[in-house]
Amino acid sequence: MAGEVAAYARDEMGIEFLPWQARVLDRLLEVDGDGLWCWPRAIVLVPRQSGKSTIVRALAEWRAAGGGTVLTTSAKLTTILDLMREPQLRYRDRDGFTVKLIRDQPEIAWPGAGAQGHRWISQASNQMLGRGFTVDLAVIDEVQDVVPDAWES
Description:
The protein is of the alpha/beta class and about 150 residues long. About 35% of the residues lie in helices and about 20% in strands.
């Protein structure tokens, strides 16, 4: 699956992963013999400005494009707005895509999106985070600043 994410990143985003990014994706997307995630929860710790957001963007876009519902969150609204700025600009004029802000929180819906699936939603963390929909992939940025009630929801 990491190869699929890398191909998506190259073809849709115009980027090539650095070697460390490719290794992280290989491990994050590793499945066992039954096709279940080896690492259903994972923490990736890297210094600021090293390319973590690139991995998150590629993984979120790939999963949403494939039919999943993706939720990204952070304690700071500015962090999620920064994360989604480039994808929103890239998709806003494409046929079938819906790019919007709901209460200042960004969402991108791919063509064919329904109530569930083909969506990437970003919300600032709070006790109501992710309520009302099923999430296939959740990414918490700067988890140390997110209240436990938010990530437990």
